[in-house]
Amino acid sequence: MKLSASIHHLKRRAKSVAKEQSIPLHAALDQIAQGEGYNSWSLLISRVGVISEPAKFAASLRPGNFVLLGARPGKGKTRFGLELAERNLELKRRAFFFTLEFHDKQVDKYLQHGNAEKPFSCEELFVDTSDHICAEYIIEVTKNTIAGDMIVVDYMQILDQRRTSPPLQDQLSSLHAHTTDNGLVTVLISQIDRSFEQSGREVPDLEDVRLPNPVDLQLFDRQCFLTDEKVWWN
Q1: So what's the architecture of 53-233 in CATH?
Q2: How far apart are the first and last CA of the chain?
Q3: CB within 8 Å of 45: residues ≥ 6 apart
Q4: What are 36-67's pLDDT values in tens digits?
Q5: Which of 28, 73, 118, 181 is most buried (CB neighbours < 10 A)?
């Protein structure tokens, strides 16, 4: 059955319905799916055979990739990062999620409800919410990883928030070396400066990354940027 609009636009329509009717997003998605001739959103997704953008990007990643995942607030970058981790777990590889943004209960809630289509199946995901997270800490925790394992860091700009932490440039260099030396995939979630919203461009680029202190972003051999309208990666 042909849909009346793309999956992306159907999701946007569901968000509007959820807001207008004050109902949960999953209920609005089911409502939209029923309008398309399916009993539920999950059935629509399975029948249409949609491959999610995180799944597409995850399939393109290779051991040794050092990835910057950037977006403005509220555009889904944390969810996208968790979906990348989930895909890695499906491949029977390990995945680590380090966050200085959320505490344990928030992460648990996110894993249960953060995906509009289904809960994350991340029982094997290693989640660390320590206040001591920095490059040295991450490297120590993941010292026994093997090629193909994934590290997701949420988020890059606060790695050096503690005065005792090394400068961000030094931390990125250490994480890059750890990634390439061990064949890992490391994804650093990143803030995008608000000036991008006035740029008129469809997606951000490295020049839009919010940097409290200068760093060499050329360390990242892969970049992925999200907006409401588009997902772009190299």
Answers
A1: 3-Layer(aba) Sandwich (3.40)
A2: 32
A3: 7, 117
A4: 888 888 888 777 665 678 888 999 999 999 99
A5: 28
